[in-house]
Write a structure and sequence with these properties.
Helices cover 42% and strands 23% of the residues. It is built from 19 helices and 29 strands. The strands form 8 sheets. Strands 22, 23, 24, 25, 26, 27, 28 and 29 form an 8-stranded mixed β-sheet that branches. A 6-stranded parallel β-sheet has the order 7-5-2-17-1-16, with helices on both faces. β23 and β24 form a beta hairpin.
Length: 683
């Protein structure tokens, strides 16, 4: 129960540390800046996305046309540098309309009319206004072109040029306000099939992971380019788009959103955004390695020129039939590229718009876990690791924790591949904190008790008893307890005369050999060495660990001590050393056992009348010419396998009632031929 409570408290403490740190960092950043814990989680998000993204699952009816560096350089002799005359875009739209493409999304800013005067294009001279008209005519003829409304400009005041209302009426909070939006100039906006904004909001650590589904300009809501294209392709009208809480309903699709707080010129703004479930990366160097089929604008313009000349095009426009086509700029220095979870190689804006459209059309969104799930997973991980860390050794706890965290990472990654973002960093972090807390508890709390056991019993009990005490120090109950147990006193007879006659080195060697063998026997019979007093050995049976057979073990130890001493005497006399004899007194009864001594020096020992009786019985061996004397209480606690000789009654110092005492003749022998022969053999 103590360890269970300790593990519970360690787990709660670890959870409080991690969740409290997350809250503190959020408050310090004002909810808009970098939160270190959230940044770490975003990095794990990136790691999981790069390992679970499957480009082969991307929609192949989405096609990209890039106005890349290759196109800009090769077209420069004919149309000049960037920006191209609008008539060039007109030719590109005419080519795509030959497919015909299902929807064309043009991610190029046409906010202002072409301000050029006359310019040469091909074999003709053309004005900027004529170039604009060519583009407007091509957009009108196609009837399926969605144009860009630039919403990247953050303004605290001002107004936008009028643009057609798409008809969305979300009428809900959580849509970011853009006071100034730059739609295409009037001649284009009126003939387009729709508009879409290009606002991207980066995460605090830099990469772009989210889409802003709508921006609000006055009383109008404007969808993003990718969302506008998807709604057009899917045939979902503005009346089918609803924002309820953090769910954006788009027809039969539900896009999960989350809140984001940003600083603006007028203060802070809270809006909803959604995760982009990228299908793969985009590499600018190789068109064939793209997630979506990608073509260079120059090659399409060349094919259009070949068609106008009556020739066979290099690229048949039918490859774009019924496709959703995104046209955008990726040329060097034009800055329409963004860092994404796929690393340092940046992704063109049209790829991001295409990924958003893919998510909506495929009804394949990334859903972040709720705050409640985060709290539950952190708390469950903390309690599990805390319970383990206070119970098992540190290295095992570390290994098991690593396995648990790795298992959770596998589960989180599999959930991620299915479109569910489980927080991975906070459960992993709380597991580390709980592990540290559990190991700290073991060292500073339980380790303190174990070190105490080592100091008290390291040399005074057998190894198995020692291991039990170290593993569970509470068993010793050091504070003092009245226990039913047995005490054994053993003393060498006539040792003073031996020590006066012998050499000091021989005496010490003899004593060391004697004590070593005697202590081994005590340990063998589950005894505890209390102390050495000169040449006397004091041993306890039934403490510090309970032992129901303490009297039997004490008597068995005494008998074996006599037998072992006989063997030692044979060895010593063979070496010319004197033989020794001992007397043993054994007493059973209630005693007070505990940690007794001063604050500076303490030892585990016993006190009481039973102890005094044991010492008295040992000294009586010389008077009765015996070797083992036990009290009547000890005899009563023994089984019927010993032979005793009554010695009468004695009065212990300080007591008036006599106590019956007995000599232990030995254990009863088995398989003897007759009682007389058995008695003779025992004697």
């Amino acid at each position: 129960m103590r360890k269970t409570a300790a593990g519970f408290l360690v787990g709660l403490g670890a959870a409080a540390v991690v969740l409290g740190a997350d809250l503190l960092f959020t408050l310090l950043s004002g909810g808009t800046g970098v939160n270190p814990l959230q940044t770490v989680e975003l990095k794990t998000y990136d790691w999981r996305l790069t390992r679970t993204a499957r480009p082969e699952t991307a929609r192949q009816d989405i096609v990209l046309v890039e106005i890349d560096e290759f196109s800009i350089r090769n077209l420069e002799p004919y149309a000049g540098g960037w920006p191209w005359p609008r008539v060039v875009h007109s030719m590109l739209l005419d080519y795509l309309s030959r497919g015909p493409a299902k929807v064309i999304v043009y991610d190029v800013n046409f906010a202002e009319p072409d301000g050029q005067g006359s310019f040469e294009f091909g074999n003709a001279t053309m004005s900027g206004a004529e170039s604009d008209q060519y583009l407007a005519d091509s957009i009108k003829a196609a009837g399926n072109v969605i144009l860009l409304a630039d919403a990247t400009y953050e303004a605290g005041e001002g107004g936008s040029r009028e643009f057609p209302d798409a008809g969305f009426s979300l009428d809900a909070p959580g849509i970011i306000e853009r006071r100034v939006v730059f739609p295409p100039f009037g001649g284009l906006a009126s003939v387009s099939a729709g508009l879409g904004h290009n606002l991207f909001v980066l995460d605090p650590d830099g990469p772009l992971r989210h889409t802003v589904p709508f921006v609000r300009n006055g009383d109008r809501e404007l969808p993003s380019l990718g969302l506008s294209a998807a709604l057009k392709v899917a045939g979902i009208g503005p009346d089918k788009a609803q924002l309820k809480g953090t769910i954006l309903t788009l027809g039969d699709r539900a896009m999960p959103l989350s809140s984001r707080r940003v600083r603006t010129q007028t203060g802070t703004d809270v809006f909803f955004w959604g995760l982009i479930n990228f299908r793969g990366a985009a590499f600018l160097e190789d068109l064939k390695s793209r997630t979506y089929p990608t073509y260079s604008a120059f090659n399409l313009l060349s094919s259009e020129q070949q068609l106008l000349s009556g020739g066979k095009p290099d690229i048949d426009p039918t490859v774009f039939r019924d496709k959703l086509v995104f046209v955008g700029v990726t040329g060097v220095g034009l800055f329409d590229v963004f860092q994404t979870p796929f690393g340092t190689v940046k992704m063109p804006g049209i790829n991001i718009h295409a990924a958003v459209a893919d998510d909506v059309l495929s009804n394949r969104f990334m859903r972040p876990e709720s705050r409640g799930i985060t709290l539950a997973s952190v708390l469950a991980m903390a309690l599990a690791v805390g319970a383990l860390a206070v119970r098992i050794p540190a290295w095992w706890a570390t290994a098991v924790t690593a396995i648990i965290v790795a298992g959770f990472a596998v589960v989180a990654t599999r959930a991620f591949s299915g479109g569910y973002w489980l927080n991975l960093s906070q459960p992993a972090l709380v597991a580390s904190v709980a592990l540290f807390g559990g190991v700290g508890y073991q060292y500073f709390v339980e380790g303190r008790e174990k070190r105490k056991m080592k100091r008290l019993f390291g040399q005074y009990v057998s190894k198995d008893v020692y291991d039990q005490l170290v593993n569970n120090p509470a068993l010793a109950r050091l504070g003092g307890q009245r226990r039913q147990m047995t005490v054994l006193f053993s003393d060498i007879r006539g040792f003073t005369s031996h020590s006066e006659k012998g050499e000091p080195e021989d005496i010490v060697q003899t004593l060391n050999e004697y004590f070593t063998r005697m202590v081994d026997i005590v340990f063998k019979h589950k005894g505890t060495l209390d102390k050495f007093v000169g040449d006397m050995v004091m041993a306890l049976f039934g403490a510090p660990l309970d032992d129901v057979d303490h009297a039997e073990h004490a008597v068995d130890a005494a008998i074996e001590m006599i037998v072992e001493l006989n063997r030692l005497n044979e060895q010593w006399t063979a070496k010319g050393r004197p033989a020794l004899d001992i007397g043993i007194g054994i007493s059973t009864g209630p005693m007070i056992a505990g940690n007794i001594g001063s604050e500076a020096i303490m030892s585990y020992t016993v006190i009481g009348d039973t102890v005094n009786l044991g010492s008295r019985l040992e000294s009586l061996n010389k008077q009765y010419n015996t070797r083992i004397i036990i009290s009547d209480a000890t005899r009563a606690a023994l089984p019927d396998r010993y032979i005793f000789r009554p010695l009468g009654d004695v009065v212990v110092k300080g007591k008036t009632r006599p106590v019956a005492i007995f000599e232990v003749v030995g254990p009863a022998l088995e398989n003897t031929s007759s009682p007389a022969e058995e008695k003779e053999a025992q004697l």
